[in-house]
Amino acid sequence: MDATPVDRLADDAPATNALVRGRRLLGDFELLHCTDGTYRLDGGAMFGVVPKTLWSRRIAADENNTILLGLNTTVVRTGRHVVLIETGIGNKQPAKLRAIHGNQELLPASLAAAGVRAEEVTHVLNTHLHFDHCGWNTNLLPDGRSVPTFPNARYFAAAGEVAHGRLQLERDAVSYLAANYDPLIASGQLTLLDVDGLGGFTPGDSRLRVPEGRNASPIQTEAEIVPGITVERFPGHTASMLGVHIRSGGERACYIGDLVPTHHHLDATWVMGYDLDPLRSIVERKRFLDWAVREDILVLFTHDHEMPAARVRWNDQGKPVVA
């Protein structure tokens, strides 16, 4: 079976709305690049202190200074498991925000087009719990209830993300929508990750603010989710953000979340205004890029609609570029 290149679409697939952004083999695993569509964010916020005269050479802004971004979900078929990494914005945004972002709520249609049924998904991983990464964790019903979208799946997110979201800080309260994860706590489907126990979280931890009468989510300190898929902390964008490592048949990929949101962000210092700790993001990005180039890692980009995956090399000037 030949793998379809993930950085090109079929000739008859419109670049703006193709439901399946690509598929390929990674060792014995199949990777499917699905999408919740596109959305628009402020270009200046996406590139932080980088002047527009520089970043606009790579990606065009509209009259409102917004740029087009993707909402990529990677589906990993291991042969025993069907694992989803990230779930886009979902269908819980109010009309005002949908108008601002222009998002399309396409993930269910994208999964169907890729031949993935909601009932067969066994695991769902969130790198962090910002609204644009975990929206389809749950589905908003007409009666106002939010219920798990994938009824048979175990969900995984960092315990530190839930704890931070509970604080509802002025800096980023808008990014954390409890309806994206509280129904999973109620259903018993959410496992909270505290890799190597560094956060010291326990079930029922006061930082998690488990509602009285509700069962606490289990805490997992091991990095392995299923054989061949593990997580690793890459703090900076948030304090507890995770990268997802995929290994099979001697090949490796990494879904790196918002550490490197698109291939336009490969420069170590081109971090986002959204990053809570931009200096730590630079340190972590350098660490990640050195490893990704040295080990020939397939990098999976969370917000790159046109290039959901690529390998990275150093160019003649020693800068990271897509291969």
List keywords for this structure.
single chain, 323 residues, alpha/beta, Metallo-beta-lactamase, Chain A, eight-stranded mixed sheet, seven-stranded mixed sheet, 28% strand
Summarize the structure.
The protein is an alpha/beta fold and 323 residues long. Helix content is 18%, strand content 28%.
Task: Give the SSE layout.
Elements: E1 20-26, E2 29-42, H1 43-47, H2 52-55, E3 66-77, E4 82-85, H3 95-101, H4 107-113, E5 123-125, H5 131-134, E6 138-140, E7 146-148, E8 154-158, H6 159-167, H7 182-187, E9 190-193, E10 219-220, E11 224-226, E12 229-233, E13 242-248, E14 251-255, H8 278-294, E15 298-300, E16 309-314, E17 320-322
Parallel strand pairs: 4-5, 5-8, 8-9, 9-10, 14-15
Antiparallel strand pairs: 1-2, 2-3, 3-4, 6-7, 11-12, 12-13, 13-14, 15-16, 16-17
